Amino acid sequence: MRGFESSTLIKTRKASFVASAASRQKGAYAVEFAFVFVIFFLVLYGMITYGLIFAAQQSMNFAAESGARAGLQWQAGASAPALVARAGKALEVAKDHTAWVDNMAGGNKLKIAVCGGEPIQLLDSLNGADATLCSITDTNKLEVVIRYPYALHPMIPYLGPSAVMSVAVPDTLESRTSVDLGIALDHSS
């Protein structure tokens, strides 16, 4: 009888050990999930942040190019009113193409400047942009410049201290395009 009791006791101990081992493992899944989730979330956050930065930069490039093209298509003549009309159309087109970026930044954060003329001057601007944004030297050119101070107004809020994120994201996004008005101006008069 002694052998039967000992085998029953051994089976009971094994069963209790297996049950206690399973209960000890319950918390391990939660800890493993926490580590994996944090890493997954940071990777996803980085992909979304950089995806939006690249999309905003491409949109700003397209807006500057489209604005400059619109300046070529507007108003024949080299007079000052015609040049101002060209600049107004260029600013309007650039603003339309970057509206989604400006909305995601919080509204009225993008600075858009249109420069040109003789002497070179700021012809039209948006949100306090000034002539310091422009860099053209040729008086026959029209330049469209768009600047977005990303560090001050990020599209997605920073995780953690902004000093840490300022290393990983750009301070400003900028796009500039210039077109030669010599091909569009009427020099016959």
Largest sheet: 4 strands, antiparallel
Strand order of the largest sheet: 2-1-3-4
Percent of residues in β-strands: 5-15%
As residue ranges, the low-confidence spans are none
Distance between the termini: 124 Å
Oligomeric state: single chain
Task: Give the tally of β-strands.
Answer: 4
Mean pLDDT: 84
Order of helices and strands: HHHEEEHE
| Shape verdict | rod-shaped
**Helix content bin:** 40-55%
Protein name: Pilus assembly protein
Organism: Advenella alkanexedens
Transmembrane segments: 33-56
Keywords: Membrane, Transmembrane, Transmembrane helix
Architecture overview:
β1 and β2 form a beta hairpin. The protein is built from four helices and four strands. α1 (2-72) packs antiparallel against α2. It has helices at residues 2-72, 80-97, 99-105, 162-168; strands spanning 111-116, 121-126, 141-148, 173-180. Strands 2-1-3-4 form a four-stranded antiparallel sheet, covered by helices on one side. Helix content is 54%, strand content 15%. It has 189 residues and is an alpha+beta fold. The protein starts with a helix and ends in a 9-residue tail after the last strand. The protein is rod-shaped, with a radius of gyration of 31 Å.
